[in-house]
Amino acid sequence: MIMNILPIEEVAHLLQSIDQPARLQILLAIGDGETCVCHLEATFGWRQAYLSQHLMALREAGILIARREGRFIHYRMANPSILKIIHEVADLQGSKLPELSPSTDCGCPNCAPKHEKTADKKKDLSGFVKLVKV
Question: Could you give the 3-state DSSP secondary structure of residue 12?
């Protein structure tokens, strides 16, 4: 009996869409909220073109949804349940994922009010090395 392979291909496509460390970092930074592109640029210090390439891939895979507000583009997860998958994989690896907070270098209206609350927090991205070595 031949099984319908389409659902398996869909799962494989989803996993391939998030298989790069940069994309995992982006998804963790967005979390179950909404984040502007300038926030991600300031948080990671990546070139805008590099970040845009990953955001486009995640958007085309149906993982992210974009919303424009003036000159700012905000992203959110289409289905925040994907974060559970990322955390489960980290648990399987015995890894602790970093908690990412807004950069104090981001001056957009979305991030500016958060700076006062998060000025003392530091980003710890060291957990990604172990997470992606499977």
Answer: helix
For the chain, list the domains and their CATH numbers: 6-132 (1.10.10.10)
8 A C-beta contact, residue 17 and residue 57: yes
> What's this model's pTM, rounded to 2 decimal places?
0.74
Nearest-angstrom CA–CA distance, 42 and 44:
6
Q: Look-up: residue for tokens 């998060």? A: 118
pLDDT for 70-83, tens place per residue? 888 899 999 999 99
DSSP string, 18-84: T-SHHHHHHHHHHTTSEEEHHHHHHHH---HHHHHHHHHHHHHTTSEEEEEETTEEEEEES-TTHHH
CB within 8 A of 97, min separation 6: which ones?
Answer: 28, 86, 87, 90, 127, 128, 131
For residue 94, is it left (φ>0), alpha (ψ between -120 and 50) or beta?
left
Q: Are strands 34-36 and 64-69 parallel, antiparallel or unpaired?
A: unpaired
